[in-house]
Description:
Elements: H1 8-33, H2 38-68, H3 79-105, E1 111-112, E2 117-118, H4 125-158
Helix pairs in contact: 1-2, 2-3, 3-4
Amino acid sequence: MNNEKYCWQQLLLHWLSAVIIIWALASGFAVSMLNVSPVTFERVTQVNSVVGTLFIPVFLLRCYFRVALPLPKNVNDEGWRAFVAHFTHLSLYGLTAVVLLSGILMMDRGIDLGVFTLQSMLCDPFWLGLWFDVHVLSCALLAALVVLHVAAVIKHEWWGRRIVRRMWF
Ligand code: HEM
Ligand code: HEM
């Protein structure tokens, strides 16, 4: 379908996801790199584990709407540019999936979600360490891709292509 905008479901989920992902990336890297107190580290990590886990169904819904609903027509006229944009968007989805999966698998303790506690899936320190490394690496790649994504949006707007309108209410 050749409409000019994303559907409202895609808009809502894009901005909700953007806020959660940017918050989790910024706060996660901040507490791991800055010299914060162990209490702050523990609090932020705990909040992020819960928020990240609750984000999983939201992300799955977003993936569903990505395939079930029509997309607006390409903003890029040249084929290779459309391919790069498409590839970047799919990579954002793929990396988010890896970040969420590795986050769950690296947990060495249960995640208290209020109504129930999600038990840790693994206990072998080797696998816990491996998934931790995957989590950190995928977070770093996701952060780089988000920067690229936002830079591309700014570039389009700068050149007069009103791209944010396509992803706005
Ligand atoms: C929106 C998805 C998520 C993002 C963007 C995200 C981001 C991050 C970042 C940037 C870090 C710091 C990495 C470092 O040490 O340099 C981190 C650490 C952590 N994440 Fe996530 N995360 C997400 C989801 C999850 C989930 C679903 C869980 C578990 C249920 C989780 C559990 C943790 C834990 C426990 C740490 C601290 C590890 C440590 O240093 O002891 N994260 N996360
Ligand atoms: C302030 C930050 C952000 C801005 C201004 C922004 C803006 C946009 C805009 C304008 C589009 C539409 C592109 C088009 O016309 O095709 C878009 C699409 C997209 N954005 Fe963002 N975005 C932001 C943050 C994020 C974050 C943090 C993520 C996830 C990691 C993300 C993931 C995506 C994806 C996957 C698409 C493609 C949508 C689809 O095809 O389903 N965005 N974004």
